[in-house]
Amino acid sequence: MSFPLVSLSVLVISVISTSAFTNTQNPSLHQKVVQIHSKRRHHNLFSSLLPSKISNDNNAVVSENKVLVLGGSGFVGRHVIEALNLKKIPFIATSKSGQEDDTTIALDVTSDTAAQRVIELCASNDISTVVSTVGTIFTECDYEVNAASGQIAKALASSKDVSVDKFIFIGNSQRIRNVCKTVSSLQEYARGKEESERLIQQTIDADDRLHCCIVRPTFIYGGDEFGWNPPRLPTKFGEIIEALLGLYPVQALSEFLPDALGVALEAPSNVKAVAGSIVNVIVGLDDSYSLDTREDIIMSASRRPYGTSHIDSESAQTRREELKLCLSQHAKEYTPEQNFAMLEELEQLKPVSTRPTDDSSLNGRWNFCFDVEPDVGTGFIKDLFEGGEDGFTRRILDFQGVHMEIGNDQSTIQLVVSVSLLKNPFTVILHTSLVPAPTNPEGTMFLEKFEGVEVNGIRLWYPNAWKKSRFLEFSYLDDAFAVARGSGGEPHFLLRGNK
């Protein structure tokens, strides 16, 4: 269902047909994905047709929180502030210099008075959540800066002068720290992060009044430019690498290899997903104590409120029909960003009574709607369907269809990819199993486990390490349409097919 599954099927087909792609006239995977990324920025001539009810106001959330962002001028901090602004959540932010042009308050977290200064800021501004994105790497004060977050969390937990009830910290995985400890220039960075996590864990164990959440991304990418300190890939390259390294075989290999090699193959996280997960912890859509993997971060960032009192009203039903008509018949008339906004609004209008984990109507055939192009993966598959302008690509490899079959009381999925290779038909079927996620009161979330792949009815061998489970959410479902979010976090629009 998710992009890694679709991509795996393309990978299998590509291995079978390697010689067919040696012609230099065919665009490479990199070229196609870059083309797709460029198209996502295009605003077409039909933007005036977008229904007027879709606006940025849909992003606002009801929140009584006021947030203090430590490190607000840094890479992650800036994106957290952007996400807070989008959700209309009030905040203040600090940076070391406190420059007026970035509207931050001066705070040196390495000073002896830093913790007391944070307490004063929280008390005087009625802060309920503190987010620490501070961090340095390759500097003389790496330990002091990276250890400061834990010291601040400990001070907040013991203070009677503040009403802070949440503390969120950007940490990293034990595997990352293990690698950093082998490199002399990174040892103080790792030691500082480890000290912060130790102090935060002590705070969690000693007093449950302060809810602490540690977000543990590996490599974070984003923005428009390359960076060195800290190392940074821009979005258009990071998306490609995330998609490729997120494949089952690559992840299995990453887990098998020693830390130094395995870390290099771990899929990076988009900075917007990291910021989105932080905001959802702030507003209470996610009550996790830690987000330990990229998938945890992505699924946390994609959480949204369900089931308000007006969802089943006549006006909501009318709006659902308008959105479904636009998405199913007029998606080409809108930009990808507009289609994405419509998908998110449709998710928010999910009927209260709909629980896909218990609903037999989820069973059956579902077709992907590639005109609604929300991510790099489905855009790439769409380009493969369309083929080259001169038809040469299609004469070699013609992708004829992709659909999904859910059965056995919504417990199995068959992802069916039909192609013609040199006019010979091939059918690749990816098998996965589904079980309801253990903590999901809305009844929308499954755990999807890879169970095998077959080509033209022949089961292919695969290592047991590929039998991994991932989140799969059906965030909207009715008799004719569904919206699903896989491990990439982006929504996919599905149309009911003929059985």
The side-by-side strand order for the widest beta sheet comes to: 12-13-14-15-16-18-19-20
The fraction of residues assigned to DSSP E strands is 15-25%
Number of strands: 20
Radius of gyration: 24 Å
Provide mean pLDDT, rounded: 81
Q: Unreliable runs, pLDDT <50, ≥5 residues? A: 10-57
Q: Please summarize the sheet with the most strands.
A: 8 strands, antiparallel, barrel
Note the overall shape.
globular
**Structure classification:** alpha/beta
State the end-to-end distance.
Answer: 18 Å
Helices, by number, come to 16
Please tag this protein with its features.
about 500 residues, alpha/beta, eight-stranded antiparallel beta barrel, seven-stranded parallel beta sheet, 20 strands, about 35% helix, about 20% strand
Please describe what this structure looks like:
The chain has helices at 3-16, 29-40, 75-86, 114-125, 142-158, 174-180, 187-206, 235-245, 248-256, 259-262, 271-282, 294-301, 314-329, 336-348, 376-386, 392-396; strands spanning 67-70, 91-95, 105-106, 129-132, 166-170, 211-215, 220-221, 227-228, 231-232, 269-270, 290-291, 364-368, 397-407, 412-421, 424-436, 445-455, 458-459, 469-477, 481-485, 491-496. The relative contact order is 0.13. With 499 residues, it is α/β, with parallel strands linked by helices. Helices cover 37% and strands 21% of the residues. The model is unreliable at 10-57 (pLDDT under 50). Strands 12-13-14-15-16-18-19-20 form an eight-stranded antiparallel barrel, surrounded by four helices. Strands 3-2-1-4-5-6-11 form a seven-stranded parallel β-sheet, sandwiched between helices. It has 16 helices and 20 strands.
